[in-house]
């Protein structure tokens, strides 16, 4: 009876089902199959037998033992991923909201158009190009930083061998690339605020700072919360492109700039160690899943509407 | 009076910050541009500079001696971007439209099905195995296109736009006897043109700037798109002398490749089309980001 209902529904809306079919299949292939493929973390994988055909690891957690052995850099990569992503989220919001608020205060159609275009430009550039820019700025002999330092008589620094500066440099690149993009969302919310709020505040003698603190910021809060939660939910995933293009295979700064995604990529493509790579990927996915669930719970507690699902 | 001076200082400060930040954003581009026009001796002696000390084209000359490889990479990037954008836009829109219809029975289930893939993923290892072992996506052009055809994020952006079109429009056409697909093509698509243009631009930017697919799924150097060629040359400038024109390049440069300049020159050649099109397309991006801001 029920299956007949499904059939007749399929028949009646045939074209709608046909329309969604390609998308549904592609999502199945490239998102759901890999999710089930996480199984590979418990297998002694070889390409000939595939994911299901390969034998189980013995012991079954074998790949993980290797991953967390003392020589492994997986824990360091985990720490770096969490630490750097936290910095990106904090500084990202500070700059996106801050610049949006300031930009909202200036006038002049052409002035605004030109400055906003310049700020948005870095978003359009691939990380590979950013990698070239990083080289241009920080290379030891010819980099702009060092030529500037030595022309001031300060000597030069081997940036690509100095781990502690990289969190700062990476944050700067992140801010450089994401602010123009991020501020658009906040600007849209700011222009939606009824001007009469500000007029009333002015009459009551509120300073500019107070107007921002008590009118603009509260209006931006829902957007800030939603966007932050989305980012926190992805805190275990580093931006592979960014790290691979800027840091690459420069082991001298892995101490502060090696992240889970680059670690997995190295194990997979350079060392060909699928076992360890898949164990690291499994571990990353599980923690990411827990964090997303917690985030969603938190979002629901703050505001029913800003939960993710 | 005091109040007015304070006000003027306040505005002066705001303008200065905006200008400073805009300069901060654009300076790296100028740096690369100027470096690409600087002679190798000058770079090695004085380092990269924001203005070229003496104008010099040798980096570009060497780069274009090996133009074959560059043109090949350009061709691949263009093919991938054009085919990828058209196919992806069609597939994305065809999934997004039914997801916006209240009369579509599977709407809720498929929404969750799509949303989950934004939040959770299997990571790169199983993805890589699925692509290479089961789908044969290795060392061919399809490998640079197919994996990105249906991105959940784009589906949601388009869906939230389709939701702003009153469902009565398509419903009344349906009562008049039009099929769903015809309604979609002849009524919905024309109405959604601005949104489709924006998402299409997002998609083409994604394909143009991508090198992840090439990095993981290609072993053949000949198939490298532009971005990947840039990376190959950046990490090994000598690579440029390995081409068919290698001997000629070595002769032309007296055996001394202007390696620093070449890295910057190919960087300019790579971002050239984007920077050139940028003034025309950027307002669509800004508009598109704001439709996406409607939470779905």
TrEMBL record, chain A:
<dbReference type="InterPro" id="IPR051393">
    <property type="entry name" value="ABC_transporter_permease"/>
</dbReference>
<feature type="domain" description="ABC transmembrane type-1">
    <location>
        <begin position="78"/>
        <end position="295"/>
    </location>
</feature>
<keyword id="KW-0472">Membrane</keyword>
<keyword id="KW-1133">Transmembrane helix</keyword>
<dbReference type="InterPro" id="IPR035906">
    <property type="entry name" value="MetI-like_sf"/>
</dbReference>
<keyword id="KW-0812">Transmembrane</keyword>
<feature type="transmembrane region" description="Helical">
    <location>
        <begin position="118"/>
        <end position="138"/>
    </location>
</feature>
<keyword id="KW-1003">Cell membrane</keyword>
<keyword id="KW-0813">Transport</keyword>
<feature type="transmembrane region" description="Helical">
    <location>
        <begin position="158"/>
        <end position="176"/>
    </location>
</feature>
<protein>
    <submittedName>
        <fullName>Multiple-sugar transport system permease YteP</fullName>
    </submittedName>
</protein>
<comment type="similarity">
    <text>Belongs to the binding-protein-dependent transport system permease family.</text>
</comment>
<dbReference type="InterPro" id="IPR000515">
    <property type="entry name" value="MetI-like"/>
</dbReference>
<feature type="transmembrane region" description="Helical">
    <location>
        <begin position="16"/>
        <end position="42"/>
    </location>
</feature>
<feature type="transmembrane region" description="Helical">
    <location>
        <begin position="82"/>
        <end position="106"/>
    </location>
</feature>
<feature type="transmembrane region" description="Helical">
    <location>
        <begin position="212"/>
        <end position="232"/>
    </location>
</feature>
<feature type="transmembrane region" description="Helical">
    <location>
        <begin position="274"/>
        <end position="295"/>
    </location>
</feature>
<dbReference type="Pfam" id="PF00528">
    <property type="entry name" value="BPD_transp_1"/>
</dbReference>
Automatic annotation (TrEMBL), chain B:
<feature type="transmembrane region" description="Helical">
    <location>
        <begin position="183"/>
        <end position="208"/>
    </location>
</feature>
<keyword id="KW-0472">Membrane</keyword>
<keyword id="KW-1003">Cell membrane</keyword>
<feature type="transmembrane region" description="Helical">
    <location>
        <begin position="109"/>
        <end position="129"/>
    </location>
</feature>
<comment type="similarity">
    <text>Belongs to the binding-protein-dependent transport system permease family.</text>
</comment>
<dbReference type="InterPro" id="IPR035906">
    <property type="entry name" value="MetI-like_sf"/>
</dbReference>
<dbReference type="Pfam" id="PF00528">
    <property type="entry name" value="BPD_transp_1"/>
</dbReference>
<dbReference type="InterPro" id="IPR000515">
    <property type="entry name" value="MetI-like"/>
</dbReference>
<feature type="transmembrane region" description="Helical">
    <location>
        <begin position="261"/>
        <end position="281"/>
    </location>
</feature>
<feature type="transmembrane region" description="Helical">
    <location>
        <begin position="73"/>
        <end position="97"/>
    </location>
</feature>
<feature type="transmembrane region" description="Helical">
    <location>
        <begin position="141"/>
        <end position="162"/>
    </location>
</feature>
<feature type="domain" description="ABC transmembrane type-1">
    <location>
        <begin position="74"/>
        <end position="281"/>
    </location>
</feature>
<keyword id="KW-1133">Transmembrane helix</keyword>
<keyword id="KW-0813">Transport</keyword>
<feature type="transmembrane region" description="Helical">
    <location>
        <begin position="12"/>
        <end position="33"/>
    </location>
</feature>
<protein>
    <submittedName>
        <fullName>L-arabinose transport system permease protein AraQ</fullName>
    </submittedName>
</protein>
<keyword id="KW-0812">Transmembrane</keyword>
């Amino acid at each position: 009876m029920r299956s007949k209902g499904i059939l007749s529904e399929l028949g009646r809306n045939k074209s709608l089902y046909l329309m969604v079919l390609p998308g549904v299949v592609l999502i199945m292939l490239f998102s759901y199959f890999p999710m089930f493929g996480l199984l590979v973390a418990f297998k002694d994988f070889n390409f000939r037998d595939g994911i299901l055909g390969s034998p189980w690891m013995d012991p079954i957690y074998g790949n993980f033992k290797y991953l967390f052995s003392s020589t492994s850099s997986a824990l360091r990569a985990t720490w770096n991923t969490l630490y750097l992503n936290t910095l990106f989220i904090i500084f990202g919001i500070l700059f996106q909201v801050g610049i949006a608020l300031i930009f909202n205060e200036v006038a002049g159609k052409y002035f605004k158009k030109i400055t906003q275009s310049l700020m948005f430009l870095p978003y359009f550039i691939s990380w590979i190009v950013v990698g070239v820019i990083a080289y241009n700025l920080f290379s030891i002999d010819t980099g702009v930083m060092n030529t500037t330092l030595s022309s001031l008589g300060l000597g030069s620094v081997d940036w690509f061998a100095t781990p502690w500066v990289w969190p700062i440099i990476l944050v700067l690149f992140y801010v450089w690339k994401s602010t123009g993009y991020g501020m658009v969302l906040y600007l849209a919310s700011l222009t939606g605020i009824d001007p009469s709020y500000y007029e009333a505040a002015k009459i009551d003698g509120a300073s500019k700072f107070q107007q921002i603190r008590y009118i603009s910021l509260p209006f931006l809060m829902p957007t800030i919360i939603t966007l932050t939660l989305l980012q926190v939910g992805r805190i275990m995933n580093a931006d592979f492109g960014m790290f691979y293009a800027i840091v690459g295979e420069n082991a001298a700064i892995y101490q502060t700039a090696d992240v889970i995604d680059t670690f997995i990529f190295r194990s997979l493509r350079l060392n060909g160690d699928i076992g360890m790579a898949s164990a690291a990927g499994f571990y990353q996915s599980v923690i990411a899943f827990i964090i997303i669930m917690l985030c969603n719970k938190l979002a629901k507690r703050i505001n029913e509407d800003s939960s993710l699902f | 009076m005091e109040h007015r001076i304070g006000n003027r200082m306040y505005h002066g400060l705001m303008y200065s910050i905006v200008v400073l930040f805009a300069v901060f954003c654009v300076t790296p581009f100028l740096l690369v541009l100027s470096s690409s026009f600087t002679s190798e001796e000058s770079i090695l002696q004085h380092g990269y500079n924001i203005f070229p000390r003496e104008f010099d084209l040798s980096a570009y000359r060497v780069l274009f001696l090996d133009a074959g490889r560059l043109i090949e990479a350009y061709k691949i990037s263009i093919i991938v971007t054009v085919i990828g954008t058209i196919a992806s836009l069609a597939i994305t829109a065809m999934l997004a439209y039914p997801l916006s219809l209240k009369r579509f029975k599977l709407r809720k289930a498929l929404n969750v099905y799509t949303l989950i893939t934004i939040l959770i993923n299997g990571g790169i290892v199983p993805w890589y195995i699925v692509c290479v072992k089961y789908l044969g996506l290795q060392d061919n052009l399809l490998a640079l296109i197919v994996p990105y055809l249906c991105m959940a994020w784009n589906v949601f952006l388009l869906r939230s736009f389709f939701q702003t079109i009153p469902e009565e429009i398509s419903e009344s056409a349906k009562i008049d006897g039009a099929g769903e697909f015809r309604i979609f093509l002849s009524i919905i698509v024309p109405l959604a043109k601005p949104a489709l243009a924006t998402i299409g631009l997002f998609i083409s930017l994604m394909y143009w700037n991508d090198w992840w697919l090439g990095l993981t799924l290609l072993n053949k150097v000949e198939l490298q798109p532009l971005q990947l060629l840039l990376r190959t040359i950046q990490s090994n400038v000598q690579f440029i002398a390995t081409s068919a024109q290698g001997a000629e390049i070595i002769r032309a440069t007296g055996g001394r490749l202007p390696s620093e300049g070449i890295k910057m020159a190919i960087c300019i050649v790579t971002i050239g089309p984007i920077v050139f099109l940028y003034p025309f397309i950027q307002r669509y991006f800004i508009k598109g980001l704001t439709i996406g801001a409607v939470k779905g």
